[in-house]
Amino acid sequence: MDRYAVIGHPIAHSKSPSIHAAFAAQTGQTLVYEALLAPLDGFADTVRRFIAAGGKGMNVTVPFKLEAFALADHLSPRAKAAGAVNTLSFRADGIHGDNTDGLGLVRDLTANLHCPLAGRRVLLLGAGGAARGALQPLIEAGPARLHLANRTAAKAIDLAEQFRPIAGALNLTASGFDDIGGEAFDLVINATAASLSAAAPAIPDTVYAPGALAYDMMYGAEPTTFLLAARAAGARRVADGLGMLAEQAAESFLIWRGVRPDTAAVLATLRAALAKG
Ligand code: ATR
């Protein structure tokens, strides 16, 4: 049977095995998908053992996405743009690295949340790996305006410069949180790690245009601190990153199996499980 796994450290609470088992059942594919704990200094060895045992592909999570990027023999354009790999495919000609996180975000926004990006004004908060991974798919979705804001302004400015070559006519700018100014946005995406420490990025209340959607890449049983602050500041709609999780998984499944699973039922199950705790 074709073997797949998610590899990380820690990994016990990963939702990927149940997501992919549901995708396999739904699409009639026969495969096994397990959770693999790699020692912090043993990522490459663990991957190679999995390949030797017949493994076909892997999802890669914290803290190994940069090591997966370095390990891959072939990188997709979106993995190169993200500078990180979350999907490995083991083929006859070597290890292929891809990144489905950014596309997962864009699909969740457009297909699940019915928030079109074309022509919209977008504010992306953060300048770490999560923000970087989202940038190419966000730019390709055709917003009218994209502003990057980060607690450390220099990192946002540097990131914007790296992506300027693919930005074309897009109005792409960057600043610290204090210098966002009075501008309003249709979509505000939190790609910072602030929610991990129950904090919210210190942005002005004025960033939310009428009807704006606030989106947090993090998720939990309760709305994140950012989403609570966004609601209080006037964001009309808020959404967490559970849909992004399901969509990046679906995109990985498509790469491996050539079929795109439908995420609606899986997402409903994940949401119910999260609410139950
Ligand atoms: P990731 O891969 O999750 O993006 P990272 O590369 O460590 O993680 O980046 C973390 C991001 O969250 C950075 O943009 C960081 O801001 P700085 O560059 O100023 O460090 C941001 N961040 C973390 N905690 C934050 C907080 N409490 N408020 C605002 N931004 C925060």
List the helices and strands and how they pair.
Elements: E1 2-8, H1 16-27, E2 31-37, H2 43-52, E3 55-60, H3 65-71, E4 74-75, H4 77-82, E5 87-91, E6 94-98, H5 101-112, E7 121-125, H6 129-140, E8 145-150, H7 153-167, E9 171-176, E10 185-190, E11 208-216, H8 225-232, E12 237-239, H9 242-257, H10 264-276
Parallel strand pairs: 1-2, 1-3, 4-6, 7-8, 7-10, 8-9, 10-11, 11-12
Antiparallel strand pairs: 3-5, 5-6
Helix pairs in contact: 1-9, 5-6, 5-9, 6-7
The structure holds 2'-monophosphoadenosine-5'-diphosphate (ATR).
The site of 2'-monophosphoadenosine-5'-diphosphate has 16 residues, from helix 6.
Descriptive account of the structure:
This protein is of the alpha/beta class. The protein has 2 domains: 2-99 and 243-276, Rossmann fold (3-Layer(aba) Sandwich), CATH 3.40.50; 102-240, Rossmann fold, CATH 3.40.50.720. It has 10 helices and 12 strands. A 6-stranded mixed β-sheet has the order 2-1-3-5-6-4, with helices on both faces. It is globular and about 55 Å long. The relative contact order is 0.13.
What fold name stands as the CATH topology of the largest domain?
Rossmann fold
**In percent, how helical is the residue content?**
40-55%
Name the strands of the widest sheet in spatial order.
2-1-3-5-6-4
CATH superfamily of the largest domain: NAD(P)-binding Rossmann-like Domain
